[in-house]
């Protein structure tokens, strides 16, 4: 079962001594994974997968042009929301060098997919996501659980002020409605990040972002009436945000949080804070392999098609060590996340 609490100390199996010295457990797992050939590149898989996404995008654009000024465009908007979600997953895999081993082609592909096609800064997102991988669910170091609007622990709730304090009272109920704004939020943060000293190529990234929105808004308001264009944007961006949230929220939300000063080795830090989602081929495709979140966090550059086999190896190894390994179904994962969000918001509701 999930354990949505705060980790405050090193957490090997209770009542059981570790069989290896701290720091060596991951090395043994890594050896087993490498011996199974699960880290080798899968160029054919990514050629087929990215080709299918490119065809879907081209088909969506063709349908948009063919339909013209019609309310039927809302169906196209919904379909393109799914395509954009798949583009986001493609950018994710490129950023982790799952596709190419070298930095240059990975970065070039990431800039094309994220900035030009999605309207999201590749450099900004990669920096944010790298910090998340280093310290998942860490209250101070993981940007994905910073209390910007939502709160993820009772400690954050007790310190919340302003908007997070107001939203946090009912954040479980507001979570999915808020996700409709996530696509726009990513684009807004991308433009803001262009001024950041950490941005390596602000001119290139900014130019690609501007090109994306010139094409996006230009195409919409040229071909559609203003009302239909705005409706298209609402459906497309809203469903795109919900799709992204449905892919990323099950991975860590509702799993144990880590406080500053907690000492956990790499394997336990990644496994104990992550949740896998079962569901077969549909869930694998819908979530782009991120349903194997534990294995992805342990081996970020592992190609997507190897994750299922790595899951069996990792789960068996965690059982040997007595390390809790959590996986559940897609709907159950959302229930766990929402239950946790409601629980941590309880102090705010009680303070009314």
> Helices and strands, in N-to-C order?
EHHHHHHHHHHHEHEHHHEHH
Low-confidence stretches: 9-23
> Strands across the major sheet, in which order?
1-2
Rg (C-alpha, Å): 21 Å
SS class: mainly alpha
Q: Approximately what portion of the residues adopt beta-strand conformation?
A: under 5%
Overview of the structural elements:
It is globular and about 60 Å long. It has helices at 25-35, 43-67, 73-95, 103-118, 122-134, 154-159, 162-168, 171-179, 182-193, 202-223, 226-252, 266-272, 280-287, 293-298, 307-321, 330-344, 346-350; strands at residues 6-7, 257-258, 276-278, 327-329. Helix 10 crosses helix 11 (226-252) and helix 11 packs across helix 16 (330-344). It has 352 residues and is mainly α.
Which features characterize this protein?
two-stranded parallel ribbon, 352 residues, mainly alpha, 17 helices
SSE map:
Blueprint: E1 6-7, H1 25-35, H2 43-67, H3 73-95, H4 103-118, H5 122-134, H6 154-159, H7 162-168, H8 171-179, H9 182-193, H10 202-223, H11 226-252, E2 257-258, H12 266-272, E3 276-278, H13 280-287, H14 293-298, H15 307-321, E4 327-329, H16 330-344, H17 346-350
Parallel strand pairs: 1-2, 3-4
Helix pairs in contact: 1-15, 2-3, 3-4, 3-11, 4-10, 8-16, 10-11, 11-16
In short:
This protein has 17 helices and four strands. The chain is mainly α. The longest helix is centred in the last third of the chain and has 27 residues.
């Amino acid at each position: 079962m999930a354990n949505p609490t705060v980790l405050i100390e090193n957490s090997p199996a209770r009542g059981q001594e570790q069989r290896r010295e701290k720091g060596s457990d991951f090395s043994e797992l890594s050896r087993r994974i490498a011996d199974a050939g699960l880290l080798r590149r899968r160029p054919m898989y990514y050629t087929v997968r990215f080709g299918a996404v490119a065809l879907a995008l081209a088909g969506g654009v063709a349908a948009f042009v063919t339909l013209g000024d019609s309310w039927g465009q809302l169906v196209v908007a919904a379909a393109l929301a799914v395509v954009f979600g798949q583009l986001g997953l493609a950018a994710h895999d490129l950023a982790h060098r799952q596709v190419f081993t070298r930095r240059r082609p990975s970065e070039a592909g990431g800039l094309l997919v994220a900035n030009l096609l999605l309207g999201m800064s590749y450099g900004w997102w990669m920096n944010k996501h790298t910090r998340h991988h280093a310290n998942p669910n860490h209250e101070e170091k993981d940007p994905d659980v910073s209390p910007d609007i939502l709160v993820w622990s009772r400690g954050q709730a007790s310190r919340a002020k302003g908007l997070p304090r107001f939203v946090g009272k009912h954040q479980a109920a507001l979570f999915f409605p808020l996700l409709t704004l996530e696509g726009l939020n990513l684009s807004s943060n991308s433009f803001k990040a262009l001024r950041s000293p950490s941005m390596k190529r602000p001119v290139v990234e900014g130019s690609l972002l501007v090109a994306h929105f010139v094409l996006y808004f230009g195409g919409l308001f040229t071909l559609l009436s203003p009302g239909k264009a705005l409706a298209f944007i609402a459906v497309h961006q809203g469903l795109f945000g919900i799709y992204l949230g449905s892919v990323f929220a099950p991975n860590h939300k509702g799993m144990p949080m880590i406080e500053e000063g907690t000492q956990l080795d790499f394997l336990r830090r990644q496994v104990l804070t992550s949740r896998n989602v079962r569901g077969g081929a549909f869930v694998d495709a819908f979530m782009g392999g991120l349903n194997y979140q534990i294995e992805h966090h342990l081996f970020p550059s592992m190609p997507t098609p190897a994750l299922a086999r790595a899951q069996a190896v990792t789960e068996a190894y965690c059982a040997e060590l007595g390390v809790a390994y959590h996986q559940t179904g897609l709907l159950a994962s959302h229930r766990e996340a929402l239950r946790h969000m409601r629980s941590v918001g309880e102090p705010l509701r009680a303070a009314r």
